[in-house]
Amino acid sequence: MLLAYFVLSEMPDPVIHHIELCVFDAEKTLNRLKKFGFNLFAKKQTAFCKQLVARLNTVIFLITEKNVHYKKENSESKKNFGEEIRSHKTEPLTLCCDHSPHVDTVFNLALNVKRNDVKDIYERVCKEGGQIIPPTEISDENGTVQYSIVKSKCGNVIHTLLNIDDYNGEFLPGFEILDSCQSTSKRDLNICGIDHVTLASYSGHSEKVINFYEKCFRMNRFKITSNDDETNGLIISEGVGLRLRAMEYWRCSETGLSYRNEESNQNNSFLLVVVESLEGQTNCNVEEFLRHHRGEGIEHIAFKCNNIIETVSKLKSNGVVFRNPPTAYYDELRNLNKMSGLGVDLNRLSQYGILIDNEDDSTDKSPEKKYLMQIFAKPLFDLKTFFIEIIERSGARGLGSGNILALVRSIREEERRNKMKSEAKTQEIIKENFTSPRQC
């Protein structure tokens, strides 16, 4: 697992403007997101596609369903990235399934950037040979939005770079905003933003992904823990086969980027993670995503909250299904001295299946105990691809490397239980057929 850490500094708007999903059934996807507390906020319908905007407090998901019956004009001549979109002015802001049909996917991490960054990042991508839609503008009665679209080096992942300084609308030009009773989000879930976004890449390819973000988005190395080696990163073997490496992303008035210090407002920051299997080893979680997704892409997004037990309880009552950790997970925690003094009720965590990881850093002289709690939902789509994580931090800055191991164990235990159930059912059928009287 290779991890790139991007922390963006304080901004007037959330760093992530929205996340775009490209799906075959927008209504079905919206209904699934409603279980997480999302509500329909805005919509747009054109000949090319149907778009629904779902909002959960500051988190916005744009669900795009492409019209599969739409006939492209002169399709044979349009081979460049985004050429189809540029030729159809009704769809200037989406590249959903631009070239060919795909599985349901989360593919666009749209970012709020400063005015100069739209052009500056575009020019850096050009120098790296990247594929892009150049800076352009789109307007309506609420003002003008400047944007560019950049294709990353990770599968189908793109970034829409948006500057909304001159726009007073509630979302983007061309969208119909619904009335307040429909668009009001469920604020009692305590979801307060996006903590991190994780990309899954092929083994050995994540270095190219990181180099792209380093050169085009100007990132620097970020040390996750004291065990994070400058060259090799943080390796989690033990049958997991993952490498973690972090990079930091920031802004400033002179260059578009600036350091984020410890006192920065973390409500306006997020982490971008790149994961891969170690060479010579296979990580079942990453490889399963790559197989079902048919390539690299956004594996999961973590929502941060202030009270994970309360949030998970409400999500479960809404019908959200989470992965359950192995039965021995909490027994092991009770035997660990480093978990003592955290003031956390392990019985409550066990009741809801919540994982906990203590950030044990020998170089940190602070008396404050730092830890995080997290839980992983089952995949959002029918295939085993994108999923949502819920996380609560108490001073911890990492990702819970111990819980990555627990997650893999839980997946394997789940597969083992399913296999045993299947084998038991097969034996019952065989026994029933053997003992049943023959029909003449």
Short précis:
Helix content is 25%, strand content 27%.
Describe what this molecule looks like in 3D:
There is one protein chain. The protein is of the alpha+beta class. The protein has ten helices and 19 strands. Strand 7 (143-151) and strand 8 form a beta hairpin. It is globular and about 70 Å long. Mean pLDDT is 80; it is low at 7-11, 73-79, 84-90 and 251-265.
Please state the structural category: alpha+beta
Biggest sheet layout: 9 strands, mixed
Strand content: 25-35%
Major sheet strand order? 6-7-8-5-1-4-3-2-9
Gyration radius (Cα, Å) is: 23 Å
**Helical proportion, percent range:** 25-40%
- Any idea what the shape is? globular
The parts where pLDDT drops under 50 for at least 5 residues are 7-11, 73-79, 84-90, 251-265
The arrangement of helices and strands along the chain is EHEEEHEHEEEEHEHEEEEEHEHHHEEEH
Query: How many strands appear in the DSSP assignment?
Result: 19
What's the N-to-C terminus distance?
60 Å
- Name the average pLDDT: 80
Number of continuous helical runs:
10
Name a few traits of the molecule.
alpha+beta, 9-stranded mixed β-sheet, 10 helices, about 25% helix, globular, VOC domain-containing protein, Glyas_Fos-R_dOase_dom, repeat, 4OHPhenylPyrv_dOase
Summarize the topology.
Blueprint: E1 16-23, H1 26-34, E2 39-45, E3 49-56, E4 59-66, H2 83-87, E5 105-112, H3 115-127, E6 132-140, E7 143-151, E8 158-163, E9 176-177, H4 180-183, E10 191-200, H5 206-217, E11 220-222, E12 234-236, E13 242-244, E14 246-248, E15 271-275, H6 284-293, E16 297-305, H7 308-317, H8 329-334, H9 346-352, E17 355-358, E18 371-376, E19 387-394, H10 401-435
Helix pairs in contact: 3-5
